[in-house]
Amino acid sequence: MTRAVPEPPFAYATPPTTAVAGRLLPPASEADAMSDSSTVGIHDSVTDVFPAPVFRDELADAAPDVRIVSDGDDLAPCDALVTFRYEDRFLSADLDWIHSIQAGVDRFPFDTLRERGITLTNSTGIHGDVVGETAVGLMLAFARRLHVHRSHQERGEWHKPAWDDAFPLRRESACVVGLGTLGRGIATRASALGMDVTGVKRTPVPVDGVDRVSPPERLHEAVADARFVALAVPLTDDTEGMMSTAEFGAMRDDAYLINVARGPVVDQAALVDALDAGELAGAGLDVFETEPLPAESTLWNREEVIVTPHAAGFNDEYYERVATIVRENLRRFDAGESLTNRVV
């Protein structure tokens, strides 16, 4: 088995010394003009993830003016905006640059941003360790029946599992679909636990900690032998609904689906049908087609489904990790260089 090399807690998706493909920043003279009087707005939507004042203080020495802006505030003074949510009014605020504190930016209108000359960057590259821990934690919970024991505790019940309910992960297999930062974080940790790790990647080149890498067109073959199928792909036209009836049918009936990617990557109705039919053993889900997960969803009440509230990336270093990217990009803008983690 190929053993993974431990990764750092986080890293830039594009190394700081490497230019990012796409529209170049303004010439250095224009960038200097901005930096001399630049104002960075911290949209208060970041509070969904970490306190806006804490993040502002972390960036206080990175720009002449770092301020928190709320829904009713004028954005005109801001040259750059760091945000969790997207709002249409961002387009008319004369912003030079928007930074998303998430890796997923499918809610942003790329074409319109490009037309308005607004740069968009994201926070990809900072979640590999914690999302990897969450995904493998879900595998451990299913293998060791921790979710069942917790349910028994809440009901004040003392129940030992059947002799063959629990199993060790060291003899099991995991197929990680998507081997970017998140997928590699999962693969590294699953491999460290002795699991046989395979993966699916658009360019099937060798990846540390992954024994075999398959292209997307061989997805059914890749998931067929895995006890756990972990999804770590971005949401695109190609990945939306990529796990549906046929894919669940290709999986083992004792397999578990782990989704720490995006909700629409999974056909949720087809997943419920597969669970009802006994075609899957269970699912660990951090993301959903509709969020928050509606109260009437049957996924809430299934013992073999673990629901977490899109929190796989949450950790007490989150604001520092985002601030590192923003600080580096302020330096790059100052130097007239292309921004790291650039999407548009």
Please, how many helices?
10
CATH topology of the largest domain: Rossmann fold
E-strand count: 12
CATH H-level superfamily of the largest domain: NAD(P)-binding Rossmann-like Domain
Label the overall shape: elongated
Summarize the structure.
This protein has 344 residues and is an alpha/beta fold. It has helices at 28-36, 52-58, 110-116, 128-144, 146-154, 181-192, 219-223, 245-250, 268-276, 318-335; strands at residues 39-43, 65-69, 80-83, 97-100, 119-121, 173-177, 196-200, 212-214, 228-231, 256-259, 282-285, 305-307. Helix 1 (28-36) crosses helix 10 (318-335).
Description:
The protein is an alpha/beta fold and 344 residues long. It has two domains: 119 residues, NAD(P)-binding Rossmann-like Domain (Rossmann fold, 3-Layer(aba) Sandwich); 180 residues, NAD(P)-binding Rossmann-like Domain (Rossmann fold, 3-Layer(aba) Sandwich), CATH 3.40.50. Helix content is 29%, strand content 14%. The protein is built from ten helices and twelve strands. The N terminus is likely disordered.
